[in-house]
Amino acid sequence: MRSKRVLPLAALLLCTPALTGTAPASAAGQPGPAARPLRILLTNDDGYDAPGIRMLFQRLTDAGHEVTIVAPLTNQSGTGTKLTSGATVKVEHPSARVWAVGGTPGDSVSFGLAAVFAGRAPDLVVSGTNFGPNVAALATHSGTVGGAVAALERGVPAIAVSTGELAVPVPEQILNAMRPTDDFAVKLIDRLRARADGGRLLPAGVGLNVNHPVVGADGTGTARGVSLTTQDPQLGLDATYTDAGDGTWQVGVALVPAPARPGGDVAAVGADRISITPISADWNTGPADLARAAAALGGLRP
After folding, report:
1. Of 25, 113, 191, 277, which has the most beta carbons under 10 Å away?
2. Within 13 A of 47's CA, how many CA atoms are on the CB side?
3. What is the enclosing helix (H) or strand (E) of 45?
């Protein structure tokens, strides 16, 4: 999602060193409220049975969290923040912790909060792990980011998680890179939980759009670091249309080369760094929110 208030580069650079700090240890080593497992609603836009969401479900569950998948029944990539208007919605419940909703990621989150988590909202909504990046303008139209936005609109902290970069995707590389992506997602959530000390994981109305690079020839490499970023304003992908002469037009999509903006998500991922971009449901975020996120993420490493 594109921020209307772009943080000046100087302010971003002042915030970035805080990422090298360390989180305070719990008093006397005793687990406090922050150590309790989190109740997480997990969604995506690739579909409830896609590899990315299943891998992250297992990783978060193994980390001790109580995770429930509420995600689209079918692939809903590129649906952005769309909410379906209709009198009925198809919902399948194939297992105790899985709900498949016949709609968009936004529909899935809306249903999940209203029906699956009725009366007691989850601690966090996580959307991903997406197959491919959600940087630059791709984030604006992303169903993965749209799922996080739907949660933020309803007052629930949210994180969107994606794997990839602005390049022609190599499926095996991206699937391999989802493993370090998921490891980092768990580490990020643990950091937010420790900093929250039993309270909100993120400032009210602020979410995070996380993009993990594909590192190494096979995608299993470790990212070079973590960057707190803004959304690069470049287009990323562009469409061409060719008249087929029969009332239809053939559509082609191609990468649009453009210089990466310093301090932006494209530059970070291109440098093999994990990009974390604060987002908000009303498409606004500012220096104060970014500074608070920088304080919360100080010292975080892949």
Report:
1. 277
2. 6
3. none
